[in-house]
Specification:
Distance between the termini: 32 Å
Mean pLDDT: 84
Strand order of the largest sheet: 1-3-2
Largest sheet: 3 strands, antiparallel
Number of strands: 3
Radius of gyration: 16 Å
Low-confidence stretches: 4-8, 10-15
Shape: globular
Helix content: 40-55%
Strand content: 15-25%
Structural class: alpha+beta
Order of helices and strands: HEHHEE
């Protein structure tokens, strides 16, 4: 029974680490309308291509202590959110 509880606790811990964190950006950095630009969203989601926008969002994740920018963006309540993961 103890080994089953330890296994469940370990799985729960790994799942929580994998979720990442969504960070809301100020409107002066990016608006939901900016996410309609397919070229820009493609650049942000490609970690192999240098992009000033991706670098800026990576800086937001690093400064907030949330880890690395995953390339994921979403619009929520009229604000852009980016996903960061350690």
């Amino acid at each position: 029974m103890k080994s089953m509880l330890a296994l469940l606790a370990a799985c729960g811990g790994l799942t929580a680490c994998d979720q990442g964190r969504w960070i809301e950006l100020p409107a002066m950095l990016m608006t939901c309308n900016d996410l309609d630009d397919k070229q820009m969203t493609a650049e942000l989601s490609n970690p192999d291509k240098f992009s000033l926008g991706r670098g800026m969002l990576q800086g937001v994740c690093a400064q907030s202590g949330a880890g690395q920018f995953t390339g994921e963006t979403r619009c929520r309540k009229e604000a852009v959110e980016i996903r960061c993961k350690s």
